[in-house]
Design a protein that fits this description.
Layout (H helix, E strand, L loop, with lengths): L8 E4 L1 E3 L2 E3 L1 E8 L2 E9 L7 E4 H10 L7 E2 L5 E4 L5 E13 L2 E17 L14 E2 L1 H4 L3 E5 L4 E5 L1
Parallel strand pairs: 5-11, 6-10
Antiparallel strand pairs: 1-13, 2-3, 4-5, 4-9, 6-11, 7-9, 8-9, 9-10, 12-13
Amino acid sequence: MSEDRKPFCEEEYLDCDRKRYPILNVLCRFWEKEVPLRALADTGCDSGIVLLKEEVQILKEKIVGFALGEKINDEPIEISVADGHIVGADAYLVIIELGGEQREVDLLVVDSDNIIRKETEEKKEKEDIFPLVGRNFLNHFDVLFKGKEKKLAVFK
């Protein structure tokens, strides 16, 4: 990537609990509703956007007429979570926008109460997490994590 290229989107890392997170501000289109979200950029994540079921419920309470769109799975999709459990998720097609660029991506709604398999007997408390922007979206662009500058840059 040459030094003279300018990113079409650049965001400051979010400082939270003395940790830095590469967060992107994305605009999701759910049918006719536009919803701004802050999402963690994760180039190791296959999915386009991942939300918790609880986060979707909050959006439904805040936005009149909010709907996710077209569900594309019949059976729950198995998602591995950090504590070793496998939980169920539903998939939807949505359009997201970042810096004027639009892409159709999968949105997975994870139901943390729908434990499909229990790898361990420990039960972790739910914590606030950010949705993820993964490879499904980020593979369309060059993404530069500027750790020293605490910035994330996205190039066409």
